[in-house]
Amino acid sequence: MIKEIVKWRPIIIGIVLVITLYVISDLISSVSILLPSFLLAGLIVGFMINESEKNGAINGAILGLIGGLIVNVFLIIYYYSLGYGDYISSILLYSVMNLILQIVVAAVGGVLGSLIKAESVKNRPVEEIEE
């Protein structure tokens, strides 16, 4: 049953998208678009799975969990390398709150992506077959 709900290919594509946008935006240009990138990746995952809103939310939440863990590990290592090792408890608390927010945003993106796909399929005109 879990194999039917969780679609790993769109989730992996979403994780790669989140990490790519994170590296480009935050580490290179110092402008963080981390939450919009989770929303965009959730939209793409929800659109790609082509199932119900519930499955879009589940796949988006899994994307948010895995992608959030990877990004937050990068953030913790980055802050520690900058010399903020004395504030590790505050950094960990910030990372946990950030992870929860990333999971919620990606799940909302998954639901929105599923709704967009359902509307686009519903409004597609039916082609007549000429014989």
Label this structure with key terms:
131 residues; mainly alpha; 5 helices
What does it look like?
The chain is mostly helical and 131 residues long. It has one domain (2-119). It is built from 5 helices and no strands. The chain has helices spanning 2-5, 8-28, 34-49, 53-81, 88-122. The longest helix has 35 residues, at 88-122.
Give the overall shape.
Answer: elongated
Domain count: 1
Structural class: mainly alpha
Whole-number mean pLDDT: 87
* Helix percentage: over 70%
Biggest β-sheet: count, sense, barrel?
none
**Residue windows where pLDDT falls under 50 for at least 5 positions:** none
As a percent range, the share of strand residues is: under 5%
Strands, total number: 0
What is the helix/strand order? HHHHH
* Count of separate DSSP helical elements: 5
Based on CA atoms alone, the radius of gyration comes out at: 18 Å
Q: What is the distance, rounded to the nearest whole angstrom, between the alpha carbons of the first and last residues?
A: 42 Å
InterPro entries: DUF5518 (IPR040493)
Protein name: DUF5518 domain-containing protein
Keywords: Membrane, Transmembrane, Transmembrane helix
Transmembrane segments: 7-25, 31-49, 61-80, 92-116
